[in-house]
Amino acid sequence: MSLASYAVLAVATFPFFYYLIAVYSTARFFRQSKTAVRKPDYTPPVSNLKPIRGSDPEAYENFASLCRQDYPDYELLFCVSSRSDPVVPIIERLARDFPQCRIRIIFGSGRSGSNDKVAKLARLVSEARNEVLVINDSDVRVTPDYLRTVVAPLADPKVGAVTCFYTSIGDTTLSDKLQTVGMMSDFFASVVVAWLLDGIKFALGTTIATTRTHLAQFGGYESLENRPADDLLVGRLIAEQGYTVKLLPYTVSTVPDFASFGELFHKRLRWMVVMRHMRPWGHLGMVFTHSLAWCCAAILAHPTAGVTVGYLGAYAGLRVIMTWLLGIRGLKQSTLWKRMPLIPLWDAMAFLLWIVSFSQTSIRWRGGDYHIRNGKLVAAVAPRPK
Is the whole model's pTM more than 0.70, yes or no? Predict the structure, then answer.
């Protein structure tokens, strides 16, 4: 066997070490979380901020879950672009059905940033009546203990922001199921590895609990309105102030909206391209996390039964252990077993997405095409016809 073959076999083991770190960090995260002290009686007034554009599947039920909170004092603020937005009648119905909730609709951001969501959040923060803010995406559905759970860690003055995991409900299509298994077996694994190695220095858009003061200290959402990945940046900028970003072992639900495999692919590709610009070295280093591709390379370099069984067996065993520890034991997703056969398909797609992301010079986002230059969204202008 040649020296090059030995080199391929050696490098092909690198993802296994990453998987072992992920297994260890997952076990440690959930073990420590069981002993974490909560202060459920910490219930300051809260403003729940919802930047909205259009109507998501099951939008009414998503919003209604926020009106059923076991929390003494909170308001629910929506910001939509105009009165003609199809989500407006849904919010108006919500206000009629839950008269005990303080629900307000704000029309327009009053700003012209390329990131419309962030522009709306800047307006929402300025309109909020309370110091404590909870921000979540429009497709989020929660249980009645949600606000108590995500706000409680802010009782510690060292905690600047709180975020949490999320799970998909109502998976019916292959793309929905593939998204779920990808989040549980891949993305969340990278989150807990980051927690172990460097601490949480980002936030997940499904939930960000923080305060007006912490946002103002880095310039607020106004400073982010032309930048992508605002949820990641909010966590990073709060962490840079010396505060802890707390990741909870708590999950909220999201309603899937992928009509096709193509939609899932392009959404994930957009995120990968954004990450390539936001964390270029980290994105490049992902080459050592794609074990399925390296197993194939090892088999091609030395096509023997021992190599095939050894590498593919280690890959399958570690991926199943990771997914079981995180998704089933940690996040209590008992039906995830049914999705596990899709892990190799997800890993193949994830590797393809990573490869393709290096060739993309623009992203498609909310109906427009954008370049990312110096960490900012810049509208892509089509050349004029001659």
Answer: yes
